[in-house]
Automatic annotation (TrEMBL):
Gene3D superfamilies the UniProt entry points to: Tetratricopeptide repeat domain (1.25.40.10)
SUPFAM superfamilies xref list: TPR-like
Taxonomic classification: Bacteria, Bacillati, Actinomycetota, Actinomycetes, Kitasatosporales
InterPro entries assigned: TPR-like_helical_dom_sf (IPR011990)
Listed name of the protein: C1 regulatory protein
Species, as recorded: Streptomyces chattanoogensis
Amino acid sequence: MASPAAESASSRTVPARPNTAFRQLRGRLSPGEFAAAVRRSAREIGEQVSCDARYVGRVESGEIRCPNYAYERVFRHMFPGLSLPDMGFAPRETVRGRGARTAVNAAPLASVPDHSDTCIQICEESDVLRRAFITGGPAAALGIAALPPAGAAAVPGPRAPVGRAGTAEATAVEEAVRRIRLLDDRHGAEGIYHRATQPLRAAYDLLDADVQRRSVADRLHSGAGELAITVGWLAHDSGRFEDARSHYAEALATARVCGDAALEAHAFCNTAFLARDAGRPREAVRAAQAAQHAARHLGSPRLLSLLALREAGGWAVLADRSGCEQALARAERLFAGGPRDNDPEWMTFYGEAELAGLEAQCWAALGEGERAADLARRAVSLQDPHFTRNIALFTAELAGDLADSGSPEEAAAAGMRVLALLDQVRSARIRAILDRTAGRLRGHRGTGAVAEFLERHAASAGSAAH
């Protein structure tokens, strides 16, 4: 997988120029939507790139003067006939000398184990970043390669005497967040939660380091807070609600310390989601409203739309139909405002599929099974294939909605699709949804499709327990 943080091989003596040609190629897509298109194109040619909105921003700002070879292949696939200069990049020979190219080609590959024992190969093209990942001290623990294999006991990161921290360390924290999120998108949280706590400890160690520039200190705080939210989400999706609550509180405290409104909004957003799932709907409403207050000046209608949906979810569990409908209407209106350059990087998952899926959850909580099923079906059909975990989630919710609306055979068919996806995704939350659906369908076990699903579900549950 090509690392977006490893792209900045340009000389530090050359001032960055905005890449207006690449910005034109993005067109009307938001940075997050364009990043998703890059990932899809990469899969079409067998590449793996961890492209996100921040990477797109770095290209357009001119910070990345020339992409690495994996990204070059993807961009040429997306824009046939265009050369790197046509896309606004500097020719490779003007950016890297022969020595730099030799160093890159000779760089070792870092094997990144995930819960299924597959390896994602990460080639770091930046010498500065490579040193940050392989040398001693807290920054070394931030590489995903430092995570132990699934099933191994979590090993605390090295706690060397805290010295100075700079741009390399801040970038290492941000890169750890991206890599963990990519693994979660594809495989769910259960296999990586405990391993992800190690880079989180290392990131918070770095907050005690001597930092010369305020901009770097701000990046370290924001990065550590985002990492706390990411690890909190892994705990949430693994069914460890108290751990998740603690991590979200840590992120919120970090946001308050550094005055980061975007981080505060994100922490409250996840707190609202957790509170709803944990059976505290009034707290969910209050946290979602606090998130909207924090985000009011961030210039992102899409963020405010998502936060309105979090509020709607709380109202729905409270059976407050009026409050839920008002929040849903606000969410849809804000979503229609379209993507903006100010949309947070972590929101790349929030598109039409997620909007439909979260609305489906609200209607299901209000007892509108058929309406919820229609929206859940739409969420599954629109989902980006990259988000395997979300496809499994919305399909599981579709199965439950169909069971509630009196369509047991369709529910069983959807449940079978989820069971197939659980070979790739490990999520206690998804399994719990499927367990509830199986319970609702037991009264229809005389139907062949339902009987087959119940048998497969029981076998799957038994293997998961072992």
